[in-house]
Amino acid sequence: MRAFFPTGQRSQRAALFWARRLLAVIGALIVVAAGALAAQAAMLMLASPRILVSRALPAPVAAEAAPGGADPATFASP
Questions:
Q1: Predicted structure pTM score
Q2: Rounded Cα–Cα distance for residues 74 and 63 (Å)
Q3: In angstroms, rounded to a whole number, what is the distance separating the alpha carbons of residues 31 and 60?
Q4: CB-side neighbour CA atoms (13 Å) of 53
């Protein structure tokens, strides 16, 4: 049984080596994914149309204007 599951110093060093290697690969994948997300956000920002907002206020609506543009005298009762 010992031949299949060595418990010596060599196997502990190998396990530590592979654990570090696995952490390095996972870290590299996280960095690549974050870079891809940042690049996608930058491309969306550059490709989206710019909306220009005017700082001028809209013209005031006339107070005597009836809704729908109808003449108020038309609706007067006799």
A1: 0.49
A2: 18
A3: 54
A4: 1
